Amino acid sequence: MCLAIPAEVIKLLPDDMAIVSIDGVSKEVSVALIEEIAIGDYVILHVGHALTKIDPEEARETLDLLRQMGAAVAEVAP
Amino acid sequence: MCLAIPAEVIKLLPDDMAIVSIDGVSKEVSVALIEEIAIGDYVILHVGHALTKIDPEEARETLDLLRQMGAAVAEVAP
Amino acid sequence: MKYADEYRDKELAIGLARAIHAKADPARAYRFMEFCGGHTHAIARYGLEDMLPANVRMIHGPGCPVCVLPAGRIDMAIALAERPEVTLCVYGDLMRVPGSRGASLLKAKARGADIRMVYSTLDAIALAEQNPSRQIVFFAIGFETTTPPTAVMIRAAEKKRLSNFSVFCNHVLTPPAMRAILDSETPIEIDGFVGPAHVSTVIGTEPYAPFARDDGKPVVIAGFEPLDMMQAILMLIEQVNDGRHEVENQYRRAVTGSGNQRAIREVAEIFELRDQFEWRGLGSIPASALKLRPEFAHLDAEQRFVMAELVVADNPACECPAILRGLKKPVDCKLFGTACTPETPIGSCMVSSEGACAAHWTYGRFRDHQRRLAS
Amino acid sequence: MKYADEYRDKELAIGLARAIHAKADPARAYRFMEFCGGHTHAIARYGLEDMLPANVRMIHGPGCPVCVLPAGRIDMAIALAERPEVTLCVYGDLMRVPGSRGASLLKAKARGADIRMVYSTLDAIALAEQNPSRQIVFFAIGFETTTPPTAVMIRAAEKKRLSNFSVFCNHVLTPPAMRAILDSETPIEIDGFVGPAHVSTVIGTEPYAPFARDDGKPVVIAGFEPLDMMQAILMLIEQVNDGRHEVENQYRRAVTGSGNQRAIREVAEIFELRDQFEWRGLGSIPASALKLRPEFAHLDAEQRFVMAELVVADNPACECPAILRGLKKPVDCKLFGTACTPETPIGSCMVSSEGACAAHWTYGRFRDHQRRLAS
Amino acid sequence: MSMHQRRLDLKNGCVDLSHGAGGRAMAQLIAGLFHEAFGNEWLARGNDQSAFDVAAGRMVMTTDGYVVSPLFFPGGNIGSLAVHGTVNDIAMAGARPLYLSASFIIEEGFAFADLKRIADAMGEAARAAGIAIITGDTKVVERGKADGVFISTAGVGVLPEGLDLSADKARPGDRVLLSGSLGDHGVAIMSKRQNLTFDTEIVSDSASLHDLVADMVAAGGQGIRLMRDPTRGGLAATMNEIAQQSNLGFRLLEEAIPVKPAVAAACELLGLDPLHVANEGKLVAVVAPEVADAVLAAMTRHPLGRDAADIGEAVADDHRFVQMATSFGGGRIVDWLSGEQLPRIC
Amino acid sequence: MSMHQRRLDLKNGCVDLSHGAGGRAMAQLIAGLFHEAFGNEWLARGNDQSAFDVAAGRMVMTTDGYVVSPLFFPGGNIGSLAVHGTVNDIAMAGARPLYLSASFIIEEGFAFADLKRIADAMGEAARAAGIAIITGDTKVVERGKADGVFISTAGVGVLPEGLDLSADKARPGDRVLLSGSLGDHGVAIMSKRQNLTFDTEIVSDSASLHDLVADMVAAGGQGIRLMRDPTRGGLAATMNEIAQQSNLGFRLLEEAIPVKPAVAAACELLGLDPLHVANEGKLVAVVAPEVADAVLAAMTRHPLGRDAADIGEAVADDHRFVQMATSFGGGRIVDWLSGEQLPRIC
Ligand code: SF4
Ligand code: SF4
Ligand SMILES: [Mg+2]
Ligand SMILES: [Mg+2]
Ligand SMILES: [Mg+2]
Ligand SMILES: [Mg+2]
Ligand SMILES: [Mg+2]
Ligand SMILES: [Mg+2]
Ligand SMILES: [Mg+2]
Ligand SMILES: [Mg+2]
Ligand SMILES: [Mg+2]
Ligand SMILES: [Mg+2]
After folding, report:
1. Which domain holds residue E73?
2. Does the CB atom of residue D318 touch ligand 2 within 6 A?
3. What is the pLDDT of residues C256-308, one digit of tens each?
4. How far is it, in rounded angstroms, from Cα F14 to Cα C343?
5. ipTM value for the complex
6. How many domains is chain E built from?
7. Which of C357, C360, C368 to mutate to test the pocket of ligand 1 (most atoms within 8 A of CB)?
8. Relative to the alpha carbon of F154, which ligand is closest?
9. Considering only alpha carbons, which residue of chain E is nearest residue D335?
10. CATH of the domain at F321
């Protein structure tokens, strides 16, 4: 459910609007639901609204963990 | 101006309407402008309204006159 | 078609043509104006010109209510139709009538105005009933013939208490137009009139009496079939030859002296005279048109929509004023067949196929060519 | 696509798949319900089933707000859209959702109802501004994810004082649906939940605590990318193996414990709980949906248009209730692939491509065939 | 195709946007309705084009779009018309029609039942003409973006050797032959138009003329200069087009031109000229005077040319006037229709 | 034609009903706008059909209707599309396109300037493809009964001897070749749709493929089983159609299928699958394994096949499944698009 994709804020507009970019596609969206927004932030975009910001630290840690989980087995597995 | 054609009344309808016939074409028209109308009457039809009845006597007389006028000359002309 | 085919008989036409040739005095010219577009149409459609002597010339009059509607009234109608809430109902002939700067209802419709062609006033009433959320305006035009059907419609709208219906009234009167032609500043060259056919079924022959009596012009009311026309021409020639100037009635099968009293009464109860009205090609003519009486103001589109009167000057190069007075012919106009054609009419005489210029373009042009060849 | 492509990496997937195989105890079965259609989609789209051990089975939950919308609410929307003054704005997914007797918004549109697909709530506002003479109704659906955008729209409508705008509210809540599954009469066979991704960006992880604490079910909130899913599955296996039942958060890059406070506040100010709401496939669930607060009654389409509540029974042959509780699979339904296909969906699980039956039809069918061949 | 779909509900169903989206619903509509109605080996192969064998020689190609309103009218419907009209444009070259293509643009909400009647009429008209509709296309547009259904057909045919009919080939002295009475199609259509409704026995003359043409070609051979079907704009438009393209004039005889009384009456009622009214089963041929009698005889022997008549001749005329001697005895020009064909009050 | 008319006001004028009524206005529109843009000897003759010589052999015929909205889009307009699309359906048979017909259905009020841009684009596309639009038709309908302009083109072409490509000819073991990246046309169109507007550099791939096809035929000859352009319904529809008609299945490799990042991003934004999105300048060929490398090499040498790829193979499968190994490592079915292509929220 709830189709939503990560998008980078590339321009802030009046009235809680912003332009986001996704791999060469840009679109005007609402950022009214986000407390503090800045250019360069990544947000989760759903039906034309930014729902939340993506935390780059957490994202990196999750990836690291993923790598460790796979690697750990690879080492122990025969 | 004022495209109008002779049409025969073939049916009387409520609300001052009637069906008229013109050589195999029939159409519902208003006869509200005619004082007394009867099946078999010919009327002058204009924009869906009967404007006046055609007087068959006068029509015949006009034709007779036409014939005479032409014939008279035919006789006198060389 | 009974009461039509008999009056299109070729044999009788030959007889009448002979009679006309016999009666027309070769020593003089007969210049008759057929007032009505219907007559113009008959002349063109049946090729009557070919059957008349060269010294009997027919001058096409202003008798087409579509042609004489001025550009300003068309502009007003377009502005009305462009209002988002309005659906304008018009007779088909109106669609191509030029407003100012090339505008027309056809083009306005193409650009999005809601304009519907209707065949009868009753169709407009039906449209109003079927579309209660839209303002249906009937673009009423026409001479005395077409006014009674508008009156019937207004009665029906009253009876049905239609609150979304109104009339943009442009009905005009024939006698004042004849008067305007006769009172023209440049002396006109007309020896007599073929009087209206269907107008006269409504108003009778009496309204033409002054033109015979006061102006000394013979008038013969004639039907629109070609034999009607030929007979009327013959009757006019006889009046001229005799030095008479009377109102005669060739169209007795449908026209009486006093007309259709019921229709006259209805029209009188609903409409009243305008002080002035602009005619394309003839200019402003006093007491020549009708408007709704104050009792029917609620059905008057000009009041409901507070329509501003628009007046647009006729193209000065257009020779219609002279043509309508018998002073010039279509080919005398330098716009004829170049800038002005039935596809892009400039003056009133080119607007409907019954205008003098349009009829000549559509049906008669080849004769100029023949004449040029002959000379 | 940053923050997406990294989580679709094939090499990392192979590692995670190995880890899952290593951690999954061959002696037992792991039956996890992914609540969200987004997870179902990821499983199907990326072919995750092929990468899991046979004893780890994913059960597709009710987590698609389109699928769970009951036929009665669709019928209500159709009746609304059929009103001549109404333009109904809908998200595209809704167009094919079946109402009763084969009806759908797509078919109602074909038959003349004014139904417009919008991408965003802001489009509905623009439509209302551009069409002041029409009643614009927004068909609001969705879980906690989609409710805040509706709230933003309602604030905008208030600010712009739109008198021709209203909302047909069908927003539903995920925790009560999970509760309904857990409280099902027939004991369910689910060992843990992959918890919602984007719902949780709004409401946070806390609302899932009771399912872990009181029901003893491990819950791992997971993103919608395939590696997110695999990591979550591994985390669930570890919880099961450890005998733990906690709420864990795999989707930490976008989900916090307490969620998006601003969004939660907006929603709370505008909406309130309904006593009951019907879910397709799950029946009536108490306190599982939202309606507009009395302060916003003027924007509530159900009140403005005095909409009658319509309830339509689910097709009794449809196995969705059992499928949504993990008791049956799509192929166990005798309508699957015959009467019920994505073109003619009968139950909630076939409605959107994320329903259990639709996902199996669209992406997974061939495995039945392969299994039949193998056996 | 076995695609696990419910059958098309041909009784109560209607077209929706999914039938134009390139998915299963579209495939089902095409297979269940169009292939069913047109039934031939080419369509059955299900390709985006169809192949056929040709002998060396000369072919013709034509297309017409059909937007007639109402879709169903006395004497036919848009489907039969879409076959007849295109067959006729092939036949007017003197060619034998072979294959048609059909492109449908359908408004969402259009009833399957009506679409089936239309497709069936097309199939029937094609079979009657001995041709096949071998390739097609279906698009669906939103409500309010079409008018029920539009059909564009294209057709190809083969020319008999040595025949090269063309509107620039008329010569002074040529005779003008008309295959039958004027205005039936246009009057039948107008009789069913909203706001115009009148009753008449007149039915559309819509018919495929290639068989009549074959008889004419057999009788007149290369003495036939050109043929044309007087459709939109009627005989008047056709004669003026030919006059322009051949740089000459015509003299027609009104008396010789057949018009049914009811057609004449309807035209008087509406203020139209029968010479401007559309026909869909009539042709005009301009032929060398030497073959005129033979071609006319061949025409009158054919059921579709029973009322054929010699209606006039081509004349030298730099002004390219189409003149007509009226049955009343005078002369007039027969001009193109100006603007649209509108009912007139004056 | 000298018809004493004012010139078409190509700057500010627009089509009205008179331009479809068969009179002088229509003749002027056709001569002044369409003949001007398409300019060729056939149209100049002004007949209702056009003739051309053919050699003995096999021909193909096809038609498509074009109803694209918006009419003008990045990379083309409805006019260029109406040429490319129909040329491609001819080319997909392996045939060389020869002639097109064009049927226009125009909504009153449509600006001449836009019509001219469209006609010019058609003329240009036809000249670029080395073909001619030799016959046409113009209809005008009332406002609200069309969507600006619809164009139906039909086309004919000649087949090289011995070539008989058909969607029922795929055999297990055959390779599937795709000529380039997917979804560019559909995404370019959607980026300009009202309520969907987004910005992207993506332009439609609309192009005539017959030249690429000729190179492929030269390289693969009768080893080519069939070709098809994945238009409406995208690659998914095309592969499923072939599977149905050839009664087999396919196994595709997601990794091998080129999709531009911006197309992928737009699809994610709208909840669409690039495999369902329309293309107008791409083709799929199913070829015998022996010729696969040679054909692929010929494709990649051609500018329109630069990104061509071998994307999978045909397999025996009574269920006619189109399967795909995902780039993530799993497997899935590639099904037809269900219903219409709608942006999704979930
Ligand atoms: S040709 Fe045109 S401009 Fe000249 S007089 Fe006639 S109507 Fe007027
Ligand atoms: S196949 Fe259809 S009817 Fe059967 S369970 Fe799934 S949704 Fe219900
Ligand atoms: Mg044609
Ligand atoms: Mg034709
Ligand atoms: Mg036609
Ligand atoms: Mg096609
Ligand atoms: Mg033709
Ligand atoms: Mg095609
Ligand atoms: Mg195609
Ligand atoms: Mg296409
Ligand atoms: Mg044509
Ligand atoms: Mg194709």
Report:
1. 2-158
2. yes
3. 999 999 999 999 999 999 999 999 989 999 999 999 999 999 999 999 999 99
4. 15
5. 0.94
6. 2
7. C357
8. 8
9. E4
10. 3.90.650.10
